[in-house]
Design brief:
The protein is α+β, with helices and mostly antiparallel strands. It has three domains: about 5-155, Jelly Rolls (Sandwich), CATH 2.60.120.10; about 160-205, no CATH class; about 205-265. It has twelve helices and ten strands. The protein has helices at about 105-110, 115-120, 130-135, 140-155, 160-170, 180-185, 190-200, 205-225, 230-235, 240-250, 255-260, 260-265; strands at about 5, 20-30, 40, 45-50, 55-60, 60-65, 70, 80-85, 85-95, 115. Strands 1-2-9-4-7-10 form a six-stranded antiparallel β-sheet. The protein has a four-stranded antiparallel β-sheet with strand order 3-8-5-6, with no helix packed on it. About 35% of the residues are buried.
Length: about 280
């Protein structure tokens, strides 16, 4: 069978008002016979608006059709997406705990589930699809989506920027640095760090770090298009091959070889970092 072509539109950095909480706005278009990625765990969240055929997911041998607007926030396991026709989506990638500033929900409420946009944002989310479909370009769609988010941020912004800095320090920090040292560098105690992260993400510092390290390693491998994982794993702080395999099995439920298939490496949602 001839391989289907997939087009990724240029992604855009968010406007200044959103940058503390949003990494990027991006889009994806593909034909009906193109494969979609299997989603893997991370510390952030994605808001997906499907403007083409409905998306579906396969789980436990069952196929479930997804709403046109949904948020996924995977902390463990995986989600296999499937196309039911031509795909045309635009998505918002939130930093760490950033999504909590756009609704009354906490990250702990959203973890390991796909949440309909109407549940998270109310009926206004259903208006996004017809509004964005009328716009002729990715740039116009991204502007409209950013305006929607700015309105949500003005209403739900939480006055605890320090909590976000703690999560970012765990995500970008040296993976082998003891948590007590990180807490000291941030001017807080281990107990305060633990309480802060549990309150904002529902995760302990140790688990948050484990998920972040695995996510960053998987991103490196997908962007390089290689299943030869040992060097990338060692560079991210895994002790050896057995340690990396254990973390894949524990956090995803699959071995690295089961995850890093040619199809998955070719079709994925990972992007290079926009962080300065």
């Amino acid at each position: 069978m001839r391989a289907a072509s997939t087009t990724r539109h240029p992604y855009a950095a968010p406007p200044a008002a959103l940058r503390a909480h949003v990494d990027r706005i991006w889009s994806w278009q593909s034909t009906a016979d193109a494969s979609l990625p299997t989603l893997l765990p991370g510390t952030g969240a994605e808001l997906v608006v499907s403007l083409g055929a409905p998306l579906a997911m396969e789980e436990g041998g069952r196929t479930t059709h997804l709403p046109d607007v949904f948020v996924f926030c995977l902390r463990s396991g995986f989600c296999a997406l499937r196309a039911t026709g031509s795909v045309d989506l635009i998505s918002v990638r939130f930093r760490g705990n950033g999504l909590r500033h756009f609704s009354a929900w906490t990250m702990a409420d959203l973890a390991d589930r796909l949440t309909p946009g109407s549940v998270l944002f109310g009926a206004i989310a259903d208006d996004l699809v017809p509004q964005l479909r009328t716009l002729p370009s990715f740039e116009r769609r991204a502007e409209a989506l950013a305006k929607f988010l700015e309105g949500r941020l003005a209403r739900f912004l939480r006055d605890d920027a320090r909590e976000d800095r703690l999560a970012q320090a765990l995500y970008y920090g040296e993976p082998t640095l003891p948590v007590r040292h990180l807490a000291s560098e941030l001017g807080t105690s281990v107990r305060q760090l633990e309480r802060s992260l549990l309150r904002t993400s529902g995760l302990s510092p140790k688990r948050y770090r484990r998920i972040a390290r695995l996510h960053l390693t998987m991103r490196d491998l997908h962007l390089r298009g290689t299943a030869d994982y040992l060097d990338a794993a060692l560079a991210r702080g895994f002790h050896d091959q057995a340690h990396f395999i254990h973390e894949c099995r524990d956090l995803i439920g699959r071995t690295p070889r089961q995850i890093l298939t040619p199809a998955q490496l070719k079709s994925h949602f990972y992007n290079t970092s926009l962080r300065a």
